[in-house]
């Protein structure tokens, strides 16, 4: 912000200034200006700043402001020459002049007049039309000829302004830039007649000017740049901002500003009897007797029948056009809409007055000097039944239900003939939700597979109006990208496959209907599947630990209210339980209240949440309590879980297929692919879904299509795993070879390829892949040794396998994976079982999570070999507690159960294992282990 301040004022001139003629004037620099040093005097070395001079001098006299600018730019490169070669100066064509004093090229210690025989060309360019602004500014442009690298381009010009709407008052503003900006000479100088009542203020830390009176003028000169400004914290109230400016005003106080601007909004006689506008007012009067309903109808008329278009022409930026003109043209800016609404309310007998606000930072208004420059918006304050109503004609979709809502302006200034002081906007949440979401996900096909979802998002107010505008500007694909962000981030696998938008004029709402496919993330722990059902409470409480931040409150944002309804239909898995706060009603410091109700009945999980925010601040003293309260609430996470011993969700897949539970998902995948058949990722998404529901042959067809369009190492690896599960050994091997060719550095592919070759009896080829890498003695040599051991184990070479693992462990003695690998080889080959137990036990002690589960599985196999079935069963059950879908563990559990006489349970476990990985039986048979 500080770095841009000087450039914005020097290069663009003063915003809102006006021009008494249609062409620039060409005059010498006025006598009151104190000239900057010659640019050459600043020492133009190679490391000299690009901006050699940045000089702003402004004065107030006789109700007029005059601002003088000089900018001298060093053109150190051809890019700088290109950028600086066209000068554009803007001004407003109603109340002031653009005066050009000189455009010079400094080269070799000489000044070359770039204006000799030339003049600026005047253009009318409405640069703000895309933001619905038509302000009538003119642009004077000049293409400077003959510029060269190494030149200095020196521009001097002035802008004057006198606005009758300000009642003889004037305002001047200059930049106060701070380090680390780099400028050769930079100055801001403000002047006014000695003895004139002028107030001034500057905001950056350390910006203390030199003050003197000379020649009848009071003068402030700021020595710039000031020291680097202190870093400010996130989410601080706007009043703590330090705009990089100095300003001066002849307005004595806010009452003076209020008085000066109030006459602009007199409404007497502005609606002519018998006019079209009078007829509209009469309709409201006849239809509604209740003052609140009349007020709401008047606001709806102005918001709905008059489009917004900023106009700053003719009488300048402060004078609104008449209601008759606004109604005839059906457009107007905030001034025009406010005057129209005031006139209508007057005819309807509603007490109302205009008020000004700042849309960007209303909280800073109370800290600024009293002047119209503190504001950029005007609206209506109405009193109905003792209630103050905040009415913005430029808003959209406000209805009777919303009439009590406040506007997020912090501080405003009512405009009254007798004058008024600043009025603080109360902190109050909206009556009606500004956004309402209904989210429905159907998990009846299984908790571990992508599921269809439907979602409706209803918005009102500015969001509704903005969406209506976007519908005509954005492509369908662009809108889908925007809508995708509305879907809760429950999982990475989310596809948006359909959308529709509708508008309800009666309620002033827009509804976005979305449909797609989503994968919820369930966790398995303690024999139960768990789902985090509600998102953590979102409330930003940023850092205030620095000493100079400790007294700065936290701004919580604009008032808002949202509602969210979630419906999750669950599959039959033996029952569910809710954990956490099913009924939550929490209020946090800063005016935030969250109310949540959750129920679980008949396989339907329902969660309804309302989040309201008043916009109040969190005071410094409240910050610790706010943090503690938020942590406490988010620690009580709402979850749904299965009962102990719930069956694995894969068990229900075949029944779900028979019941048509996946038809909707498959139809959406088909439509998704048909919409963009050249998109490889769409075939892969369906392939992964088909693999999850054990339609592996169909999944292969999608993988084939994707690889045919765009082959990658990752896709080859995925297809290889699918071929492996189906027993397609040659195809799996071919895919792994293709993956290695595309990504030879991927060790995972190398290990898988060596393993497959060994299983096929091609041990020499496997070792030929691994041994050269082992001999390199690189960082991953221990992993390669472990892979070699696994390959030798598949070939039933116990001595060679164990020697390779011994070598790997010698290099990394505490590696749980290597210890488990050695235990597994001993168990599968039925050798050295006593030491195998020690290896596995040590791996369990060293490992965690999946590594510990794998070691438990290996120890269970060793106990199985030793016919210690009770211990084997305990270990395999513990392994399945952490990895319930591990086919190897399920298969081994089935073997153990059959050996201990529980054939029914054993057969069920064996069937589960073969469902998850059809080749599991063959893998164990290689070691002589069969049911």
From TrEMBL:
Residues 1-20 form the signal peptide. TPR repeats lie at residues 853-886. Residues 61-222 form the DUF3857 domain. GO terms for molecular function: peptidase activity. GO terms for biological process: proteolysis. It comes from the Bacteria. Keywords: Hydrolase, Protease, Repeat, Signal, TPR repeat. InterPro entries: DUF3857, Papain-like_cys_pep_sf, TPR-like_helical_dom_sf, TPR_rpt, Ycf3. SMART domains: TPR. PANTHER family: TETRATRICOPEPTIDE REPEAT PROTEIN 6 (PTHR44858), UDP-N-ACETYLGLUCOSAMINE--PEPTIDE N-ACETYLGLUCOSAMINYLTRANSFERASE SPINDLY-RELATED (PTHR44858:SF1). This is Tetratricopeptide (TPR) repeat protein/transglutaminase-like putative cysteine protease. It comes from Sphingomonas leidyi. The lineage of its organism: Bacteria, Pseudomonadati, Pseudomonadota, Alphaproteobacteria, Sphingomonadales.
